Amino acid sequence: MAKTIRVATDVGGTFTDLVVFETDQETGKSVVKTAKSDTTPPNFEKGVLNVLAKGGVDVSEIDFLAHGTTVVINALTERKGVKVGLITTEGFRDTLEIARGNRPDFFNLHYAKPEPFVPRFLRREVAGRMSYKGEEMVKLDLSGLPAILDIFKAEGVEAVAISFLHSYANPTHEQAALAEVQKLWPEVSAVASHQITREWREYERTNTAVLSAYVQPAAERYLGRLADGLKQSGFDGDAYIMQSNCGVDSIEAVSRIPITMVESGPASGFWGAAELGKLIGETNVLALDIGGTTAKCSLIEDGHVKIMTDYWIERDRKSAGYPIMVPVVDLVEIGNGGGSIAWVDEHDKLHVGPQSAGASPGPAAYGRGGDKATTTDANLWLGRINRDYFCGGEVVADMAATEKALSGVAAKLGVNADEAARGIIRIANNNMVNALKLVSLNRGHDPRDFTLVAFGGGGAMHAVALGMELGVKKVVIPTGASVFSAWGMMMSDLRRDYFVTRLGNLRPGAAEGIEKTFAEGEAHARAQFAAEGIDPAKVKVLRFGKFRYQNQEHTTEVLIDGPVTEERLAAIEADFHQTYEREYTYRLKAPVEIVGIHLVASAEVGKLTMEKRASTGTPASSALKGERNVDYALEGIHKAAIYDGTRLEPGMTFAGPAIIEDPGTTVVIHPGNRVEVDGFGNIQITLAA
Fold this sequence. Notes:
6-stranded mixed beta sheet
């Protein structure tokens, strides 16, 4: 029997996920298989090969493979990159250290800026200068470059970053310097800022080039080991890496600029949520991903996932963090997941996270030596998770260790273990509600107009409580929710985002220049795809403009449908006013400026097509496993019906209180909520008024 096998793997902080679609080429019917195994730092590729073996996948038969990984973000946050040398414009070596004046701890007189990734003695300058219009003001002088590289070699530098002033407007100086570095020192990893972004903001662009160079050797080694491991197992199909912009790209392209996959895991989940919303007719989606370590959320409007380049790592209330100017899905991330540790501060106040028990030792219930109470332990103790079906029956729940961990928290609070567990759940839920408000209410969106799509190993346990708090239309738990980020990769296109800075007033006569910038960008994008053998007919391009009121600092992005003509300028300006007012609650009677363009070029590469199944008419009672008492924290203890998630079929309906159990996750249905299984196997929950 001829079949097509598509595989997606996603490396998370705790688990590595697998989704396999086997499609019969004659009938078109697909069989879906999922699996999870422990993530294996620092050799993450072992976890990938392990989960493929666990899922019973014959690697030699795979036709399409998509992969998401945390290797880049881990290398950055754990400082496991390489020593970097920076080459920049004469007089600008300290841009990286001066940074921005955006210190969050404003009243701290002893505030210290984050330490730059390149110390001053490894930041070197060359003469040459471009204007902001891209005109050469001072000729490039590379005569001192050999001496600079000799210093770098002596200091053990393994990667070189190049960032020149105004290279976003004209990259020729950077191109010449990069070519000379590769000629004089071919073994070193080297990257120039124009290869990553053509947007202005000198500090952000320079820091992005530095961080890309910092992780490049580690990423190249990882992707090389992964490719070798797959090849040795017989794989000869097409392999793609998930990007932070919700698209996939080839291993070769990603190896050159690995910083583009800094948030590849969350991006695939949110893209999957957008595609799922289109399938079920819910294009306005609040997407929530709760894993073992973190919870992440994003807002999807009219089926579009918002992509931004104002992305920072390690930014919090006490640190400004570090900017990365690459296309990243607009998300909020907090340290609240299944493994988040509950703790009591010196004022007897209970907290949950951001510290995590991780995969090892993990929650106390895992029985691997963990002695800290986590969100998972609280869910288990309250009967929300089945102690006799823990981790899909693969792990025997250590209830004694769970009780001991929860009792330790309870003793500090002066309550019993039950009350401590309820408190942990309520605080974790509150943290997640606040994160969801940041991407909705705080940006001018009413959650009541949205559907909450929750996934990840912990999403289904908390989703209904969060949805009730926010007042969303309904809650949807996707089929295969625990490995949904991997499923999202199956729905992704080969995608690249192009940003070009172009300053100008949005007034009569401006259309020709704007259209020229778009046309040049599209020609460049199509040429790149064509050079990689992609059929030009398959390439789709979306246009966005970045606008602002005159003399403002930051921009608002507007979709531009079709060519920019003089007749359409007024409509484009009106769209900007409307978008700006929705986000900031007001509009100004001020001239509008264009700051730049954003092009999204994409092409389908084995994208999955989902088929809807008809209702079988089988009653939900056929999937009933039994009953047990479940503590719903706010609604008290109720006897809940327990359903086997693997036996649910399209058309089945029932009401809460109920629990749905499958090997990857547990769905907690609160009293009064209605459940329906749709034609794609998703669990749609209508909330009680």
